[in-house]
Specification:
The protein has about 325 residues and is mainly α. The chain is built from 13 helices and 4 strands.
Length: about 325
């Protein structure tokens, strides 16, 4: 800001403030332009995700919901609107409810032992005296990246009725041969064993990462108080892993309700056994598409699976919030 001395009308010296431009105005305008450009670039970089989600996520879901209200077969070009008939048939479909029971049974026999084994393996990997820890972690992750078909071939030989290794070992202890594919409970145990073998190593690494985040001061304090290793695991490790265990149960539940590859490869087809004894929800969905070509009814089955997953997720979310609130009160 400059001041020019000019004679005042009364003969006295006065000051006149000259009008000059605001130096911050142009700078703000430049910053606004740069912010707009950065916003455009950021939106451009994240747009592929939304494009892919709309094409491969939202549109198939919307079309499935639309298709569930029609009777349509691929050989018939016409689609007949039938309203809620597919959902009424689904509600009274005994095979759907049998598949639902099978799915929850396989989930129970795979998730609970899987969590226990993963916790035990993570505790072993956390031992500082264990040698070649990185090698063991890599070995534990190998089953997760192994082809499901290869896993099915190996476990098909293990659970063979006449020459399977499992029956051979059981025969040593005086147990008669078990037909693993024809018995409901035995088939669920066999499929759950396949799932556990594939995912126990992956889950153990997640538990290991959570265990490494537990402060060592807690273990030192417990050791000074005379706590044994088992007591430290019970009173220090498990409470600190509560959120991780809850997360793993939620993810395991959602994945267990969508199990498909293991029962399909175990039985060799989409029927889920001679009487559907190990047919799962997703297996039944694909069976309606491939064998019955009932696309509208298959879409209704998919919506039923989605509703079940949402209900289970809501229950898990409520339990998680309750556990978190209890921790806050403490």
């Amino acid at each position: 800001m400059t001041r020019d001395s000019t004679p005042s009308p009364k003969g006295r010296r006065g000051t006149r403030v000259s009008k000059s431009t605001n130096p911050w105005k142009s700078s703000n305008q430049g910053n606004n332009g740069m912010n707009r450009a950065e916003n455009w670039w950021s939106q451009l970089f994240i747009s592929p995700f939304f494009v892919m989600f709309i094409i491969f996520g939202f549109l198939p879901i919307a079309y499935s919901v639309y298709l569930a209200f029609f009777r349509w077969e691929p050989l018939d070009s016409s689609q007949t609107f039938i309203g809620l008939e597919n959902f009424r048939n689904l509600w009274h479909d005994p095979i759907f409810w049998q598949s639902t029971r099978n799915t929850f049974s396989i989930w129970f026999f795979s998730t609970i032992p899987q969590m226990a084994l993963a916790l035990g393996l993570a505790s072993i990997l956390r031992n500082p005296r264990l040698r070649f820890r990185l090698l063991w972690q890599t070995i534990f992750l190998v089953p997760n990246i192994t082809s499901v078909v290869a896993v099915a071939v190996v476990f098909g030989q293990l659970f063979g009725r006449d020459y399977g290794l499992i029956n051979y070992v059981l025969h040593i202890f005086g147990v008669a041969n078990i037909n693993w594919q024809e018995t409901t409970l035995a088939s669920h145990v066999a499929i759950a064993t396949m799932i556990t073998w594939r995912w126990v190593g992956y889950n153990s690494l997640i538990f290991l990462a959570s265990m490494n985040a537990i402060p060592n001061d807690l273990y030192e304090s417990a050791s000074l108080d005379g706590a044994s290793r088992m007591q430290q695991f019970r009173y220090v490790t498990l409470p600190q892993l509560r959120n991780t265990i809850t997360f793993m149960l939620i993810v395991g539940t959602i994945g267990g309700l969508q199990v498909f590859a293991e029962p399909a490869t175990f039985g060799g087809n989409l029927s889920g056994g001679s009487s559907g004894q190990f047919s799962t929800l997703t297996l039944y969905l694909f069976r309606n598409v491939q064998e019955y070509t009932a696309y509208g009814y298959a879409a209704a089955v998919g919506i039923g699976i989605t509703i079940i997953v949402l209900i289970i997720s809501a229950i898990n979310f409520a339990l998680t919030r309750r556990i978190a609130s209890e921790d806050t009160k403490k």
